[in-house]
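Ticket #4471: structure export looks truncated?
Reporter: QA, pipeline team
Priority: medium

Steps to reproduce: submit the single chain below to the structure queue and open the exported record.
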Amino acid sequence: GCGMVELSVMLGMSFALFCLLLVLAHSVRVRQVTLLDWSLLGIGGMYGLGWIIVLLVTQNGGNPTWQDWINPFSDIYVIHTIAAFLLVAGMMTGWYLPCRLLPRTRKVVSQRYSEAGPWVTAFWIMLLLAVVIQGLYSRAYGGYLGVLDYSAPIRSALYENVPHNPWSFLRPFGGLAMIAAYGFFGLSISGRRTAGVLLGLSLSFLFSVYILYSWLGRVGFVVFLLTFILGVVLSRRPGPLRLIAWAGLAFVGLLMSVYAISLWLDLKAADSLIEFLARELSFPFASFFAQFEHGEHLYRGFVDFVLAPVFLLPSSWWSAWYEPVDQINTAIIMGAPKGEAGVTGSIPVDLLTLGLMQAHVLGVFLVGLIFALLLRILQVFLSAIPMQGLRAVFEAHLALKVAILGTFYAQPNLVISDNFALIVGSVIIATILSLKRMTLKPRTSLSGGTP
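Actual output as written to the record:
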């Protein structure tokens, strides 16, 4: 009823404010905006302010796509916000749990530029791999440009008119070009502006734009460009308060630019920005209500987390015996999973719904804990990157891609497939750095013995 809507709006405001105050208190105390803070800003924005927009626009009939999954469930609106508070409690627990287990995140002073060598090598390897593997992947479609003709059906999983491609599993490797572009850019703002770095930056940036265009992802485009901007901001080490204020403005800019890109590409545009936002932000709420009401998939017992590593393998290896959460969610809301019965999109599972599907309301707390634990581990890895500019760019990427977007698109299969290039890129960097250390060791021991 009407009273429930008003109560929900007030709860949404309270939740957004609670998250903001928590972020201000935490970031000022630790003197930096951590991945946890970025995530809490995203969660407060989505489950607080986003919920108010979705609710009011839908109640006024401006959200026809989703109204049947939102309007009838006013009796459980409050449960959603309570679950959001529970999620934050889980995240705070998960972030502080490993304080004694993990090494302290230490501030690393910038190393001499001569030590940038292995990083430059790693980023060149990534760029070359991206170009070669993309060439192999796109051969079935008529080469680098031919693949662009099939971008839309491949994205929608409509394979009837698409040539069979035995190399289709190589598609995510194109993303290595983006990791290389971030790396070269990070080196350049760290002061390492050699010809090799600048050439690598130009080539990897151009190839990344081509890859993103071939994938047709609106969010991917925006995240790619924003990573560079946020990387520059972070490299200047602003105070937490100033950074959060800028982030708020950037977030508004981000929403407006996604809307503008949608109009430009003629992809799912809406009559007004507010209706566009309501429609784009509805899926987390519709999913939660649909799962809660349906009740059949509320006790998956974390099988989605246990099986997460299989998503590094080609989908043809696991799709026959395992159904990811987003497929189940899509089937409940759309009537069929993506790629069947004319369904061309899948409905992602956000962090709250993912938790609900693992172990009902308790699952929300536990998933929050696991997610924050992941963010904490990533923060420790970040603190080990020696050059400030390089660290800032990768921190920007993780803040946008994992800490913020990971709350919207939380299903483990998507977290792994979306960050496939980052995972492979990290392995390449670790390998090159350890090879470098192995070759340095004998020399240092010899020089120690000579007079």
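Status: closed, not a bug. The export was complete when the record was re-opened. Leaving a note from the reviewer for reference: Residues 105-114, 443-451 have pLDDT under 50 and may be disordered.
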